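Hello,

Our lab assistant flagged a job as stuck in the queue for most of the afternoon. It eventually completed. Since we weren't sure the result was trustworthy after the delay, we are filing this so someone can double-check. Below is the sequence as submitted and the structure that was eventually returned. Let us know if re-running is recommended.
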Amino acid sequence: MAKIAVGAWIAAQKLPNPKLARDRAAFLERTRLRAEPKTVAGLPLVGMGGSCSKPCFALPYTVVWNDANLDALEHVAHEFECFLEYGLYPHLKLEADGKEVAAVQDWTTFGTVYVRPGYERGEELLASINAALEPSTRA
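-- returned structure --
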């Protein structure tokens, strides 16, 4: 697998020029792309992080953190040469340089995963996180 293939979609959502910040028609044109469903590794793209601009994917289940699923996520992190940083929610960061490649959020009615679009193994990481946290695989 490779990088997640949503770079053009993300770029099209961003304000292309500060002069367009008050342009309602330009905003509406950018939002038309959101009507076209996007999926990566079988998970729907549901938005982007507000400050990080990482694409956000919906997990098909709710995440409630416990020792078992954190062990599973730490195993995924290790497989991808990452460590977990426990902030507001777990962030997967590369061991080599500390660059964040993903984060898993638990405080919605479904779990979400944010993935750095330029990460070379982004799609594989997204699929691995989904499989590792799937409640039926840990029951």
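-- support follow-up --
The delay was a queue issue, not a problem with the job. The result is valid. The chain has a mean pLDDT of 90. The first strand starts at residue 39 and ends at 40.
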